[in-house]
Structure formats: structure tokens, C-alpha cells
Amino acid sequence: MTLHSLPQRATSAAPTPAHAPLAQFGFVWFVPVMGWIGLTMAWFQSSPAVSGIPMTAQLASLIAVVLFGLVLLTNAVRAWRHPQALMADLRHPVRMAFTASGAIALVLMATLGTLWRGDFATFWRQAAQQGYTRMVKIAQIAKTGLVPFATTYAVFGTRRAYDFIHQVIAEENLNVKMCFALPGLTTGYGPSHQATEDLAMMRGVPGLTIVDPCDALDIEQAVPQIAAHQGPVYMRLLRGNVPLVLDEYNYTFELGKAKRLVDGSDVLIISSGFMTMRALEVAKALKSDNIGAAVLHCPTIKPLDEATILAEVGSKHRLVVVAENHSVVGGLGEAVSSALMQNAIHPARFRLAGLPDAFLDAGALPTLHDRYGISREALASRIKGWLS
User: Which of 34, 48, 225, 348 has the smallest CB count inside 10 Å?
Assistant: First the structure.
């Protein structure tokens, strides 16, 4: 068989640009995108913003973005590959009307974006106001004659709801008990969760009683007493497996009273909260070095038991150290120093063993306690240095 007699394979002619699928795409495909964006906006408007952006609106927004992007990209490729098809659309009496759908879809996408931004702003604004709303509700409960106990993280309760604590609860002397957890450096989550200035803030509220218990015994005995106390109370609350320490020292909690747990002639450690546990551990460690350390536990920060503090400081001429799980600004240390100065009581030396006036690091608590000088080893070392 000669070459010229071979049967010719039937081949379909390549589609002309005018009949290629891409050439037929067109601006009309922006119309369903416009419809979907409108449906998404309706979801936004019909869902309450207090719960944040609803899941249906989130999903619909994602689909709208994908659809708009695909249609826009496809039309851009079409204009590049088949410019004659684009020009044909512009000359067509019907298809020409759909050229505006791309611009309209773009405007709708921008409007959807403003809804997202506005809804996020509302979400965060209302999140910040949640503490305020809860405090107002608690105040309303107190006005009925009940004794409400409120609890949250100390950093959230004191910072975000401070104005309502000050104006709604304290000014009206409402019988509200605020037991806020994780005070000071009891969490490693960084400054956003470390209430290192809560005592300074709450000490400035007139008529507010402040309690900083040491252990499980302190908390157990403090709760019924603050419940019986008429007026607002702020108690720092330990969380988790709270240890039992003070039962070894024949101790009982009394609201408004400081109590000496051990005596010593070289240094007096005045402490509150879990720093009393540390002070007792330090006293035992210093005893092995022939250093006598007394520990005065002050679970009530306000009103401060000035009489007991003045008596203990004035009884022996020795170093006085105030150990606290709080910034050295505005806490127990400054309250004690003010009482001493106003009453002309001058110890041999006076030092503050609290947290620095700084935004603290995040990390493991043992590491952070060592870094900021409130661990047993760090505190013992600091006291030895002050005695030398």
C-alpha cells in the first residue's frame, strides 16, 4: 500500500476561539457570586453579634471569597487568551449588561469585609464588657439580701471590672464577696494572666476588705468569716490542690488579724498568701545557718492589723522583710512601710521581697519564682545577703 493510498484518520478541527469553553465564560458568572454574597450578608444581619461571628456566616464568607476569586481569575485569563470574545461581549446587546456585575460583586465583597470587621470589633468590645455585666448582675443579687460569691481569674476580675467594683459594689457597700483565682505570679501565661497589681488596685477602693490566705486551712476558715462580714470583700483564691501548712502552727484565721507563727531574733518576715509558706520554709532553712527568722502572717491586707505589726517590729531591733506575691508597688510591703513610718517605728533594716515593677515573663512557675526572687532558695539567699 502506497503512502498516498493510506486511509486518512478523521480528526476534529480545533475549536475556534469563539467556541472554546473559556471564551464562553463571561461576566455573567459574577451574578451567582453576587447572590451568594448577599445571602452571606443576610446571615450576618440575622445572627446576634454577642456570640461572635456565627459559624454559618463564616462558612458562607469563605465560599464567597473563593467563588469571587475564581470568577475574577477566570475572566482575567479569558481576557488575556481570548480578547476577541471579550470585545464581542462588549458589543453584544444583552451580554454587555453583565459587564457591570464584576464591579457590583467587588463592592459587595468590600461591604462583606466591613461586616467582618464590625462584627469582630463588637465581639471584642462585648468580651471586654462581660466582666462589667457580671458585676452589675452580682450587685443586683446583693440588693435582694442574698450574699453572692463571685469568682473568676484575678487578672480579669480586677482589671476589666474595676470600675463597676468601685462604683456599683463598693460605693453602695453591697455585701458581695469576690474570690478571684490565680493572683500574682501563680500562672506562667505572662502579663495577660498575671494579676501582679491586684492588691494595689483593690487597696484603693474605699471600704473594701482584702484577704490573702496562705493555704487550705486559711481558705476554709476565711470563707464563713467573710460571708458573715457586712460589706464587700476581695479574697485572693488559690486553685488546684491547695496544700495544708498552717495546721502545724496552732493557727486559726481571724479576719483583720495578723499572727506570728514562729519567732526569731535576726529577721522578721512579714508575709501573706502562699509567700507565708515560703517564709516558713525559709525560716527552717536559715535555722540550719544559725539565723533566727520570725514569720508574721498577715492574711488580711485591708484593714491592716497595724497594732500587731508595730508590736512585732518594735519588740526586737532586727531586719524586717516583707515577702509578698505581688508587685513591690502598692501591696503589703508599702502598707507595712507606711504604718511603720507614720508611727515612728524604725527597724534595723527594711527590705521588700516582692515582684518587680515590670511586665513579667511567661514560663514554668519554678523558673519564674527563681528569676524574680520569691522561691525558697532565692528568698533565703536574699535574706542572707541583707543580713551580711
Answer: 48
